[in-house]
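Morning - 3,4-dihydroxyphenylalanine inputs below, output right after.
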Amino acid sequence: MLEQKILNIKTRAAGEIKKAQSEKELFDSRVKYLGRKSGFNKILKSLKNLSLEEKKKIGPLANAVKKEIDEEIKKAEKIIRSKVDLEKEKIDITAPGKKIKRGHLHPLTIVQNEIEDIFTSMGFEIADGPEVETEFYAFDALNIPKNHPARDAWDTFFIKDQRSKIKDQNLREKILLRPHTSPVQARYMQKHKPPFRIIAPGRCFRNEATDSSHEHTFNQFEALVAGDDINAGHFKYIGQEFFSRFFKKELKVRLRPSFFPFTEPSFEFDISCVVCGGKGCSTCSRTGWLEIGGAGMVNQAVFEAVGYPRNRYQGFAWGFGVERLAMMRYKIDDIRLFYSGDLRFIDQF
Ligand code: DAH
């Protein structure tokens, strides 16, 4: 009788443990079948009233069943716990990924990097200077004296006069936003002696009425090569080499007489049209040539201004527009697009 009872408890417990879905249900089963108030416990307690023979038979059976139920519950708990964890850590590897928004370089940065690469491969150094300049470096040192009408060629933004507050004599100049990169020439030469080859790319500012080819903020890259016997032939060759590499085709260059206070003689620098190769098309207004920028042989007055002896060195310099090159490269027809912040434009690069 007792034996049957024990076996019945065992089957009932096994059935319930099998069906249990949570740890809570298993805990309840444990209380119900093995707890102090469980029927099973009552049986165990009553064992002492049995005959020795019966004790010998029922005792081990009861203990074995108790152990078995306990083990079954433990096993079931383990399985439920591992299922819960798996549920939590489930990764749906078939779900579409979240697209990471990737930025990219601005077209002017791309072009500037390329310019720097080509020149460094030709042994040039990259020089830098401040965008907020003094009038000494922007004009005086470049052979454009105070009150000289040549200054009118640069529509300069002057910064509100702070001179009286500045103790350093050298800085008691008018302060301005540099209208060209040429001041870097003077700054570099004050610290270095020829021979050297530098380019100085950077931002410039002019008080312009903007249109499709003029912007108040733009970039130039200055070149300066100085040594004992640098001549215009060197200049023509380096210019041609650079533009042929930049546009990845053989180009011709042309120098036309011009005037800049800091060069003597001065040139306008043209390259054969990158679209038609010189035959004449709408890009070059049927001339076969594209204007690139100003250049010349460094005026001895500039060398003197930075402390070199007159007629000791020779050099050439130029100031070319980075936007102009980017516009030719990418066929952009309005310079104002570069700083427009218009994503429809920027996302094309
Ligand atoms: N600084 C001149 C400008 O912005 C460009 C220029 C012309 C630079 C001749 C030079 C040069 O170095 O030699 O208009």
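Note: The longest helix spans residues 52-88.

O.
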